[in-house]
Design a protein that fits this description.
The complex is a heterodimer of chains A (113) and B (112). Chain A is mainly beta. Chain A is built from no helices and 11 strands. In chain A, the strands form 2 sheets. In chain A, strands 2, 4, 5, 6, 9, 10 and 11 form a 7-stranded mixed sheet that branches. Chain A has a 4-stranded antiparallel sheet with strand order 1-3-8-7, with no helix packed on it. Chain B is built from no helices and 11 strands. The radius of gyration of chain B is 13 Å and the shape is globular. In chain B, strands 2, 4, 5, 9, 10 and 11 form a 6-stranded mixed sheet that branches. Chain B has a 5-stranded antiparallel sheet with strand order 1-3-8-7-6, with no helix packed on it. The chains are: A mainly beta (113), B mainly beta (112).
């Protein structure tokens, strides 16, 4: 079955460390997105990529970095520059064929310890 | 990006009651989507609306794309405990490649 997979489900980070969240999709979708979710804040866009080797900053890109070397993969790195990284991170993908409706992964909960 | 104005922020209802929530915007959208998110999971698409005035049902759920293209509502009839979750509206402008604009969500809590 086609889908979008995020890993790990739970991640703990020490102060000053970089961590990378994985997102893989086998839906053949062109576009991929990373969102951050905090209680009462809804979904805030971090980065998005419409094609391989290209990506754009979203509304809250500071302290994050991404790469898009393959169509199927869009990893997100939370760097030490992100001062408040504890949150639930959601990856999504979409395509013209899907009328741009998003398919979401099941999320990664990142906690700073 | 701009977020949609979604209301209410939360709802506490009795099992069996009907539920109504809506989203409004000052901008026009070409597509409206409604998602449900359960705790610790990603949102799942419930209903997609592609034409102004369109009314679409999915079981006990009914959603409408406003005539002005600046609003949408979602109704849930005869609520049951598994309806608990956060419901998000999302809108798509233009060609869609820049992604969806989301509301902040309506948190639905059902008391048995």
């Amino acid at each position: 079955d086609g889908g979008i997979t995020q890993s790990p489900k739970y991640l703990f980070r020490k102060e000053g460390q970089n961590v990378t969240l994985s997102c893989e999709q086998n839906l053949n979708h062109d576009a991929m997105y990373w969102y951050r979710q905090d209680p009462g804040q809804g979904l805030r866009l971090i980065y998005y990529s419409q094609i391989v080797n290209d990506f754009q900053k979203g509304d809250i890109a500071e302290g994050y970095s991404v790469s898009r070397e393959k169509k199927e993969s869009f990893p997100l790195t939370v760097t030490s520059a992100q001062k408040n990284p504890t949150a639930f991170y959601l990856c999504a993908s979409s395509s013209v064929a899907a009328n741009y409706g998003y398919t979401f992964g099941s999320g990664t909960r990142l906690t700073v310890v | 990006g701009q977020q949609l104005n979604q209301s209410p922020q939360s709802m506490f209802i009795q099992e069996g009651e009907d539920v109504s929530m809506n989203c409004t915007s000052s901008s026009i959208f070409n597509t409206w989507l409604w998602y449900k998110q359960e705790p610790g999971e990603g949102p799942v698409l419930l209903i997609a609306l592609y034409k102004a005035g369109e009314l679409t049902s999915n079981g006990r759920l009914t959603a409408q794309f406003g005539i002005t293209r600046k609003d949408s509502f979602l109704n849930i009839s005869a609520s049951i405990p598994s309806d608990v979750g956060i419901y998000f509206c999302a809108g798509l402008r233009g060609g869609g490649a820049d992604g969806l604009t989301f509301g902040k969500g309506t948190h639905l809590i059902i008391q048995p």
